[in-house]
Design a protein that fits this description.
Two copies of one chain form a homodimer.
Chain A (H helix, E strand, L loop, with lengths): L7 H6 L20 H10 L2 H6 L1 H14 L5 E2 L6 H5 L4 E4 L3 E4 L6 H5 L11 H14 L5 E6 L1 H10 L7 H9 L1 H25 L3 E6 L7 H18 L3 E2 L2 E2 L2 E5 L6 H5 L5 E3 L6 H8 L4 E6 L8 H15 L5 E5 L9 H14 L6
Parallel strand pairs in A: 1-4, 4-5, 5-8, 8-9, 9-10, 10-11
Antiparallel strand pairs in A: 2-3, 6-7
Helix pairs in contact in A: 2-4, 4-7, 8-10, 9-10, 10-11, 14-15
Amino acid sequence: MTELKNDRFLRALLRQPVDRTPVWIMRQAGRYLPEYRATREQAGSFMKLCSTPELACEVTLQPLRRFPLDAAILFSDILTIPDAMGLGLGFAEGEGPRFARPVRSAADVEKLAVPDPEDKLRYVMDAVRLIRRELDGQVPLIGFAGSPWTIATYMVEGQGGTSFSIIKKMLFDRPQLLHALLDIVARAVTAYLNAQIAAGAQAVMVFDTWGGVLAPRDYREFSLRYLQTIVSGLTRQAQGRKVPVILFTKGGGQWLEAMAATGCDALGVDWTTDLKDARARVGQRVALQGNLDPCVLYASPERIRAEVETVLESFGAGNGHVFNLGHGIHPDVDPEHVAALVEAVHSASRKYHG
Amino acid sequence: MTELKNDRFLRALLRQPVDRTPVWIMRQAGRYLPEYRATREQAGSFMKLCSTPELACEVTLQPLRRFPLDAAILFSDILTIPDAMGLGLGFAEGEGPRFARPVRSAADVEKLAVPDPEDKLRYVMDAVRLIRRELDGQVPLIGFAGSPWTIATYMVEGQGGTSFSIIKKMLFDRPQLLHALLDIVARAVTAYLNAQIAAGAQAVMVFDTWGGVLAPRDYREFSLRYLQTIVSGLTRQAQGRKVPVILFTKGGGQWLEAMAATGCDALGVDWTTDLKDARARVGQRVALQGNLDPCVLYASPERIRAEVETVLESFGAGNGHVFNLGHGIHPDVDPEHVAALVEAVHSASRKYHG
């Protein structure tokens, strides 16, 4: 493997000194880029884009050609695992994901098996290998997966954007059944992320998009517990370097201490938490990643720069900050505004570093 | 006016001793009740239901005939104010509210005036007067309004359920224009709530449904500041009794201290915050209202009782707790489950009081 030319992102995740704050953007390979929309059209379907390594590699690299980002993130989807488990994933146009065979009963859970990542999910590992080759050490590659709770919400509800009524009923009335489901998903996620690391992912992130819909006690029992399982089961060293693990619970600002105690390296923080407070609460245990309100990108470049400064100032001087949005970039954002953001992070952050 | 037969709710809001924890349910007059659906059908439209005092009174009283709730809440909508301001409110079937003339420019804001509550909103005041008469002192009546930030999101976006891209762009690029809008809405809300109090509302609640989509600094500047304006401008005494003020920011669990400092009497708390922690943070300054996950009502009555006990235990012994859900009741909940909840609160809470 080639030497890494820019390791700012990996160093920041391990709270090591950097010359300026590294920056990448959740969903940086996405619909706000016209070249992404062209490749997506060429692929014919979203899953075809995910499952064709050359196309997944192409869209992964697109934002890096435009912006001097400090990391690439694998283009994929958090639902590849339940798809590989045979739930029949489909994307109705303009409707979001939907499973033909949602998981509702003990019999449904018993039928599930941990998919071999180098078999049914080989297309993901091939994409990781191809992207690493194409990146040629320019920046590190982030692998990712959904959290067990988040993946399970889709598996049980059968679709996204719901009131979570079905999975919450399961949580309250059949907690042991839900635990059985979460257990197998946690094992699948661990195997999947370890395979991504073996294929070349240099950091991994777990997206707990729906952890924030749980009460604190339920969060600890049904989401955090399985994030802990994953952190404990991950390969933390590869190719002579530490592989940092980032946990991100959207809406999890009240639970940062508990998340930091899992032994992960960094926490994603959404924009409803002040980074200064977050830093005071987690101390030296983890780095922080975030947390600009994604809607700031609707504002003028001047205002974007001012808001970037506010986030940098809120974290303050010292190690352990990776700049990002507090959630994925909205699809109707002007790419020129992303350019302004990246430039602002790099130029304005110098004064916070030795 | 008749003597109040059950003042448990008002006493708890003022942190005075009660025999058991009072309970009411956000959106208790609503679609989960077949009798509500029948009256809604009879009315022909949602706004007709809101604007006909006899029908609004009828649906306000419906849940009280079924359940021994400790408070009634005026049946109305947070969008009556912008409707009275002339924005042209419509409800497309299955689509939610939509304004024909959203507020986007300085000229749009300049056209707005504070509506006289006893003129264009007289139907609301008539409903309050009628409900008070019909309640005949059975339980207190809660008046309510949306927060300026929440009302403004609908006025600017023109509809609900959006990414808030238009109002956030205004917030970042034209903050003074947004402040001008929020200022007039805050004055309208204050006048509206004072008129409800004059008409007979015995407590008032401000629903800040969308405050939780703001970064902490933006929350303080664009939502909390106007909640403060309202709290400071409200009539706090009527008919020889204090009129308690409840503030509720959905997703505002991280900002409870700042909300308590407004001088309100109670805070609504959603289910992502533990009441024990909330109580430790706000101390003796305010009462707390909440905070069962609304999805618990999908569970079995046995499990509902257990979860009610958990919430009661989390608040613990002492004064200042009003039981409620952490957000509005879902429309597909079984009314029998609501009966189980109310019964459980009343029976299980005795041990926490004198």
